[in-house]
Design goal:
Keywords: Glycosidase, Hydrolase, Plasmid. The strands form 8 sheets. Strands 13-14-15-18-21-22-23-24 form an 8-stranded parallel barrel. Strands 1, 2, 3, 6 and 7 form a 5-stranded antiparallel β-sheet that branches. It has a 5-stranded antiparallel β-sheet with strand order 5-4-8-12-11, with no helix packed on it. Among the domains are: about 130 residues, Sandwich (Immunoglobulin-like), CATH 2.60.40.10; about 110 residues, Immunoglobulin-like (Sandwich), CATH 2.60.40.1180. It is of the alpha/beta class. A hairpin with a 4-residue loop joins strand 6 and strand 7.
Length: about 675
């Protein structure tokens, strides 16, 4: 016989209590909250228990006997006044916002919609089509964490399923799952590259939008969150969410950190006319931003129908609790925040001292985590690159676009390229941050792959079902003479060289480098630059070439080996003239220092730069020639007490290096020379 008594309102969610469970939720304007228990199949509702209201809008109930694994949901009643933004509907089963596990699948149906049409209460019950919340408690993560400093971090951005789904060296039942990421076949590959952290596309439970499923497509990337605490269960081998912990622990044992991409800017409930799955049914105005004076109109700064109301204390608490859970319980090392500008925006616009950012800064758990912002959204004042404060890092799209334009051969790029290679001091130094606050990248999950960037000048997104209207139209890409696949060995050789040029530029620039999965073995999406709904071989990495050892994989490994040998890449501060230890010199092709006139020659498409550490007597000379013709180069005098040695190049040319060597630098090629006094090592 199930018994229930008044519970306690904190903590929210299900917590153990004697031989039962305490349930607590927040629904400040509800008239009643019902806890609904289900049998183990999740199909039959076996009990409805009224929760008790507490001050402050909290509701609770203690139920016993009840064990871990129990399935449940909530029904919340209250006023249905759409013009006031109140959509209470007791006919809709709601997921617990604090549920840590789910049971069953989500199925699209008209039963999920609160009103049908808008303004008319939809009284059909949706429980049959809803997953159920599941009582589950995991112990806190206790594994050792690598704690790599930013100066030694290389990020590998990847999708959980796409990373391993075609890797035949991994057991078939494990491919495409969390546990595949900690399989030796995958870990050995990324360790050989030099990766120190994997950044996973969304791992929070998510669903596919209805407009995709009606076209036979799925949301592959996962930016459509259903629950902020539950790991996406399609990535589990079994049904045990502890597999995520197991993955993290094994990666940590192999000295690899885990960063997860989190979506706290919108949810799968979409707009006012979207489904009622959880937050909307507990209190719409608490969780979502609405237009001032129009509570029935959502603010859509995300382009996805709704925007999380991070200004509300309950929503802020939900986000903070979720972040702490993923660090303390799941063991992750950091987060990449999708459309992070939203998390710092209040009614007056973006505020670098927003309550959320302050809460992160003072939190004893989260302040130690790696925090990465995608510093833009589609809302007003949405582009905020450089506006976040320490300890935040930011995706630097200026680096991406500048490097792409330089190697495409655009005129007048040199001054901008110098800033990006130097760590983007024009972006970050104004608020006391350094080059390591810049996450440098050439490609990411969003946009062309590295191979497609040198193979396509136009996007080819027809498979997305939107008549090729979706995705960015300007990608600063070039096709090396043929649009798409080519069997011409000369074109393919040029494409390989151009990918190496971009990777070398990325890996010798000051900042934290990030490479997108597959860049190391020429992964192509056939020109699709918005493959968010392509859960198929166009998105899944093809490991056949990788396992043979791809030229790009060897190249990344070799350049990183050089990078790690020189202290100047780990210097956390910008270097200006007359620095007592570090220096940056810019040269002309004649080996002389650049002057102002040289910088403003728009047709100058080569950059020659020396980075030096006077204390350790070491230097790196970078030569990048994006021009279409040979560059006659006189090596500049070595600025430290050593001599230049050839290190690596994207050219097939063989060279010898006498002092003051005159070299012919091949068109569209990049070179590294190093100098160091081994006696001072």
């Amino acid at each position: 016989m199930i018994k229930s008594v008044r519970g306690v309102p904190k903590p929210l969610g299900p917590t153990p209590w004697q031989d039962g469970v305490n349930f607590a939720v927040y629904a400040p304007r509800a008239s009643s909250v019902l806890l609904c228990l289900f049998d183990q199949s999740g199909h039959s509702e076996v009990a409805r228990i009224a929760c008790v209201k507490h001050e402050g809008g909290f509701w609770s109930i203690r139920v016993s006997p009840l064990n871990e694994g129990a399935l449940y949901g909530f029904r919340v009643d209250g006023p249905y006044e759409p013009e006031q933004g109140l959509f209470f509907n007791v006919n809709k089963l709601l997921l617990d916002p604090y549920a840590t596990d789910l049971h069953g699948e989500f199925t699209w149906s008209e039963r999920h919609f609160c009103h049908m049409p808008l303004g008319t209460l939809n009284i059909t019950d949706n429980a049959i089509d809803m997953p159920k919340s599941r009582v589950r408690w995991l112990s806190k993560y206790e594994g050792e964490r690598p704690n790599h400093p930013w100066a030694k971090t290389l990020i590998y951005e990847t999708h959980v399923k796409g990373a391993t789904n075609r890797n035949l060296a991994i057991p078939e039942g494990t491919r495409g799952k969390y546990l595949a990421l900690c399989d030796e076949a995958f870990m050995d590959h990324i360790k050989q590259l030099g990766v120190t952290a994997i950044e996973l596309l969304p791992c929070h439970a998510f669903i596919s939008e209805q407009f995709l499923t009606t076209k036979g497509l799925q949301n592959y990337w996962g930016y459509n969150t259903l629950s902020f605490f539950v790991p996406h269960k399609a990535y589990l081998v079994g049904q045990d969410i502890a597999e995520f912990q197991q993955m993290v622990r094994k990666l940590h044992q192999n000295n690899i950190e885990v960063i997860v991409d989190v979506v706290f800017n919108h949810t799968a409930e979409a707009g006012i006319d979207g489904p009622m799955l959880s937050f909307k049914g507990f209190d719409n105005g608490v969780y979502y931003r609405t237009v001032e004076g129009k509570p029935d109109a959502y603010i859509n700064d995300t382009g996805c129908g709704n925007t999380i109301n991070i200004d509300h204390p309950a929503t802020l608490r939900l986000v903070m609790d979720s972040l702490r859970y993923w660090v303390e319980v799941m063991g992750v090392d950091g987060f990449r925040f999708d459309l992070a500008t939203i998390l710092g925006r209040n009614l007056g616009g973006f505020n670098p001292h927003h309550a959320f950012l302050q809460a992160i800064a003072q939190d004893p758990i989260l302040q130690k985590s790696k925090l990465i912002a995608e510093p833009w959204d589609v809302g007003p004042g949405g582009y905020q690159l450089g506006a976040f404060t320490a300890p935040w890092r930011e995706w630097n799209d200026k680096f991406r676009d500048t490097v792409r334009r330089f190697w495409r051969g655009d005129n007048g790029i040199l001054p901008e390229l110098a800033k990006r290679i130097h760590g983007s001091n024009d972006v970050f130094e104004h608020n006391l941050r350094g080059p390591l606050n810049s996450i440098n990248f050439i490609t990411s999950h969003d946009g062309f792959t590295l191979a497609d960037w040198v193979s396509y000048e136009q996007k080819h997104n027809e498979a997305n079902g939107e008549q090729n209207r979706d995705g960015h139209s300007e990608n600063f890409s070039f096709n090396c003479g043929v649009e798409g696949f080519s069997s011409d060995p000369n074109i393919n050789a040029l494409r390989l060289k151009m990918q190496k040029n971009a990777l070398l530029t990325l890996l010798i620039s000051k900042g934290v480098p990030m490479i997108s999965a597959g860049s190391e073995f020429g992964h192509s999406q056939g020109g699709n630059n918005n493959a968010y709904c392509q859960d198929n071989i166009s998105s899944w990495l093809a490991w056949k070439t990788a396992q043979k050892g791809h030229a790009l994989s060897f190249f990344i490994h070799d350049v990183l080996k050089i990078r790690r040998q020189f202290s100047l890449f780990s210097n956390p501060f910008f270097v200006h003239p007359n620095h007592p230890r570090f220096g940056v010199n810019w040269y002309t092709e004649s080996g002389e220092l650049m002057n102002q006139e040289n910088w403003h020659e728009s047709n100058r498409k080569w950059l020659i730069c020396a980075l030096l550490d006077k204390k350790l007597n070491q230097a790196v000379l970078i030569v990048l020639n994006a021009g279409d013709s040979l560059l006659n180069l006189t090596l500049p005098s070595c600025p430290v007490d050593a001599t230049w040695q050839f290190a690596i190049s994207t050219s097939n040319s063989n060279i010898t290096l006498p002092p003051q060597a005159n070299l012919q630098i091949e068109a569209k090629s990049s070179w590294l020379f190093t100098a160091k006094n081994e006696e001072l090592k």
